[in-house]
Amino acid sequence: MQYKRILLKLSGESLMGQQGHGIDSGRLSDYAEQISELVRDGIQVAIVIGGGNIFRGLSGAAEGFDRYKGDQMGMLATVINSLALASALDGKGISTRVMTSIRMEPVGEFYSQPKALDALNNGQVVIISGGTGNPYFTTDTASALRGIEVKADVMLKGTRVDGVYTADPEKDPSATKFDTITFDEVYNRGLKVMDLTATTMCKENKLPVMVFNMDEKGNLMKVMRGENIGTLIK
Predict the structure, then answer these.
(1) HSE toward the beta carbon, residue 230, CA cutoff 13 A
(2) Residue 135, CA distances (Å) to 17, 45, 61, 138, 154 in order
(3) Are strands 125-129 and 180-181 parallel, antiparallel or unpaired?
(4) For residue 178, what are the contacts with CB-CB under 8 A and spacing of at least 6?
(5) Where are the beta strands (DSSP E) in 146-221?
(6) Do 148 and 205 form a contact (C-beta atoms < 8 A)?
(7) pLDDT digits (tens, 9 = 90+) for 97-144
(8) How is 93-157 classified by DSSP, letter by letter?
(9) How far lies 69's CA from each of 66, 91, 98, 165, 195, in Å?
(10) Residue 154 main-chain phi, psi, to 5 deg
């Protein structure tokens, strides 16, 4: 395995599966199975999940919601997704700790870096929910922040696409995929990989990001083995 400790960023939208909303139990089980394989191989795993399958603050603001309240709703959506993933992992015999960026015991334990590191060192999967705990920040930024805090070797950004392209491959059939790309290139080309805050944090703290298709079963282990199936940003 090329990484010993990872921060896995999962898209809330991906949890919808084919339903178009909410949490698809099949997709959740697939994710839990892939993650459990890593844990059994001794990989330390921290996870941040988005909440877009339930509510997105930015989309809500566009529809008339107050942005501050909308982002708080989005943070709560990530807690729901985190509890669902923890339950799925528990069902596969994997020990988990759900931590929240906002106090809401007993739903989850209030996040602290020392507790997260202790849990990772003890072989537990640490699922950090609630974003950064502040409005106006995305879960990509939360992933960058938590990845840096827990001293992850890499952020694995599991999405519905298989890497970073020169353009949106769903709109431009001539778009080509990068095997590797620098953070500066991502910025200069205006590629929509992560928001600029997350990109800058990863660059300044030397946290590489691997973008890959998490929806294809087995891809997480392939990434860990160094197979060329995504795009590495460094």
Answers:
(1) 28
(2) 27, 26, 12, 8, 25
(3) unpaired
(4) 163, 164, 165, 166, 231
(5) 154-159, 180-181, 209-213
(6) yes
(7) 999 999 999 999 999 999 999 999 999 999 999 999 999 999 999 999
(8) T--EEEEESS--TTTSEEP-HHHHHHHHHTTPEEEEESTTSSTT--HHHHHHHHHHHTT-SEEEE
(9) 5, 34, 23, 34, 20
(10) -160, 150
- pLDDT digits over 31-63, tens only? 999 999 999 999 999 999 999 999 876 666 677
Tokens describing residue 140: 């990509």
Q: How many CB atoms lie within 10 A of CB 108?
A: 22
Q: Residue 74's closest CA among 85, 86, 61?
A: 61
Q: Which domains, from first to last, does the chain contain?
A: 5-233 (3.40.1160.10)
Token duo for residue 108: 């989850």
Distance CA(13)–CA(88), nearest Å, equals 17
**Cα–Cα distances in angstroms (integers) from residue 16 to residues 19, 65, 221, in the given order:** 6, 23, 22
Distance separating alpha carbons of residues 192 and 196, to the nearest angstrom: 9
Residues 6+ apart with CB under 8 A from 24: 15, 16, 17, 18
